[in-house]
Amino acid sequence: MAQLAIRHRYFFCLRPCTQDANRIHAFADSLRGPWKLQSASRLHVTAAITEDWPVPVPALVAALLRAGDAVQAQPFELVLDQLSASPTHLVLRPARAIPELKELGATIRAAMAQEGVPLREGWRFNPHMTLGFGRGRQFVRPVQPVSWSVNEFILVHSAVGATNHEVLGRWTLEPQQEAQLSLFAA
Question: Is the model's pLDDT at 6 over the cut of 80?
C-alpha cells in the first residue's frame, strides 16, 4: 500500500485555551454523530492559510513571522452559536458577524500580502471551527453558544497527512490604550 506524501501547510488561527478546547470537544462528543472528531488540541478557527508545499519552506515561515509581528489588534469574545454539517464536515460557526474577528482576519491577511505571501488559491475567510469529519446529513441549527476570550493568535505548521500541528509563532492581542488627556491642554 502506497503511503501518502506529507504536505506542509501554514496558517494563522485562533485557538481556545486547553480548558475551553476540552469543553468544546465534550460538546462535540455529546452529539454522537457519524463524525470522526478532531482532538481538543487541534480545535481552531483559521484566519489565513497558505498553499500546501511538498517540503518545509523556511523563507515562507520567516515572512509569515514578520507578518505576525506587524499585526496589532484588541482581544475580543468569540461566540460560536451555530452548528452545521456538510456531507463531510461538522462545524461550529458564528450566526452573526463578529466585527473584531473580521478585522483581525483582514489585518493578518494584509500583513501577509505586505510580506508577499499569497493566500491559498480559492480560499476565503469563512469563520468556523471544524469539530469532525465523516459522512452525515446536511443541516444548520442554532446551539447553545460556545465562546472563549480571544487574546492571542498563532501561526501553525501543519504536516498534512501526519496530523501534526506545530506552533511556530504566538502573538498577544493588546487592549487599545485610552488616549490620555494632557494636563497641559489648552
Answer: yes
Which grid cell is 88?
Answer: 463531510
CATH code, 50: 3.90.1140.10
Task: Note down the domain range covering 168.
Answer: 7-78+99-123+149-172
Q: In the predicted model, what is the mean pLDDT of residues 105-124?
A: 97
Residue 51 CB neighbour total at 10 angstroms: 16
11 lies in some domain: yes
Read off the pTM: 0.89
In the chain, how many domains are there? 1
Contacts of 134 (CB under 8 A, 6+ apart): 33, 34, 35, 36, 88, 90
Show Cβ contacts of residue 24 under 8 Å, excluding neighbours closer than 6 positions: 16, 40, 43, 92, 129, 131, 146
Phi and psi, residue 153, nearest 5°: -130, 160
Q: What's the average model confidence in pLDDT over 114-130?
A: 96
β-partners of residue 150 are 76
Asked if 37 and 131 count as a contact pair (C-beta separation under 8 A), the reply is yes
Q: How many Å apart are CA 180 and CA 186, to the nearest integer? A: 14
Amino acid present at 162: A
Which DSSP category does 40 fall into? G
For the CA atoms of 121, 124, 128, 129, the dihedral, rounded to the nearest 10 degrees, stands at: 20
Looking at the domain assignment, is residue 2 inside a domain? no
